[in-house]
Design goal:
Helix content is 27%, strand content 0%. With 70 residues, it is an all-alpha fold.
């Protein structure tokens, strides 16, 4: 039982080390995209507990951005 624990620990450390040391490309800076309400689609009102199958976003928030200066 002790050897199984040691083997599992070594495998776990090896997988963690491999995952941390992989090179990842940074994502490109993109213009933020917000969903748009379709013209003529009715606005949904929810009362009580219901399952929403296709929600509509009415407000997305502040979608502006600034570059971080250091």
């Amino acid at each position: 039982m002790f050897w199984v624990s040691i083997i599992m620990a070594v495998v776990s450390i090896a997988i963690s080390y491999r995952a941390v040391n992989q090179e990842h490309d940074a994502p490109d800076l993109q213009e933020p995209k917000a969903p748009v309400i379709e013209k003529g689609k009715p606005l949904g009102v929810v009362f009580g507990k219901v399952k929403i199958t296709s929600g509509t976003v009415y407000w997305w928030g502040d979608i502006s951005y600034r570059k971080i200066r250091k």
